[in-house]
Amino acid sequence: MTPFEALNQAFSGMAGGGFSTENASIGAFGSFVQYVIVVFMFLTGINFTLHYGWLTGRWSAVRRSQELRVYTTIALVATAALTLLVWIPGTVEGFEESFRVGLFQAISILTTTGYVTADYETWVPAAQILLVLLMLVGGCSGSTSGSIKVLRHMIVAKEARMAMRKLLHPRGVFVYKVDGKPVSADVLTSVSGFLILYLLVLLSGVLALTLIGLDPYSAMGAALSALGNVGPGFGVVGPAETFAVLPAAAWWVLSALMLLGRLELYTVLVIFTLGYWRR
């Protein structure tokens, strides 16, 4: 890269913005550049308090982070799955290139950075579904990533597990802990409410886009991308396309979804409640 290209990609990558100086995004650069950018995209998806812990030598906090372990596991599993899903059918020739595009797209979508190196709409349906799931995950809390975040998924999954355990042991007392600290019932309720609200807003966005004229596949891809601040979507807004082809009404809907997603729903939606305007 030239110094100008490197500076722009560094700003865009660390902020999770995903804009590149090239129309082909990071696919316009060589394989070594792609591997370097993967490293920094992965770092952007980590809670920045852990970065501070690394810098100040507080390794115990980093080792104790359950969210970091889950985030890393998701990244590794998604990379392995995408590599096999593009290599075995022969969508991408050669194992190294299959691994590179699988790794890059897994980390890019998971961290909602939005860089692309391949047109994943030419991949098998299973690989595309996996990317959709990654769009709904996001990076760690306290990172520059968008979407729901790994910590919320962890809490909701643990809450579901506790509910099943209570059915088996009605008199049991169960406490959910994250990094050795108990999570209160208020936090569990808040996270569950956020997840339900996120899905309701997402479905509302899909409905609005279909009423405007988008096909369901493109509407789902565009709404997922906008609400999660991912960047590329599916259908007419896929990795090889732009949002410029959409009608103006769709831009308004997607702009609202981007604001809601970036400010994490509650901050914006509370303004539209009656209680907010009462003295």
Notes on the protein architecture:
By secondary structure, the protein is mostly helical. Helix content is 62%, strand content 1%. It has 13 helices and two strands, in the order H-H-H-H-H-H-H-H-E-E-H-H-H-H-H. Helix 1 packs parallel to helix 2, helix 5 runs antiparallel to helix 7 and helix 9 (185-212) crosses helix 10. The model has no long low-confidence stretch (mean pLDDT 90).
Task: Name its key features.
13 helices, mainly alpha, 279 residues, two-stranded antiparallel sheet
**What is the mean pLDDT?**
90
**Contiguous helical run count:** 13
Roughly how many Å is the radius of gyration?
20 Å
Shape: globular
- Biggest sheet layout: 2 strands, antiparallel
- Record field, number of beta strands: 2
Helices and strands, in N-to-C order? HHHHHHHHEEHHHHH
Strand content: under 5%
Residues in helices, as a percent range: 55-70%
| Residue runs with pLDDT of under 50 for 5 or more positions | none
Give the strand line-up of the largest sheet. 1-2
- By helix and strand content, what is the structural category? mainly alpha
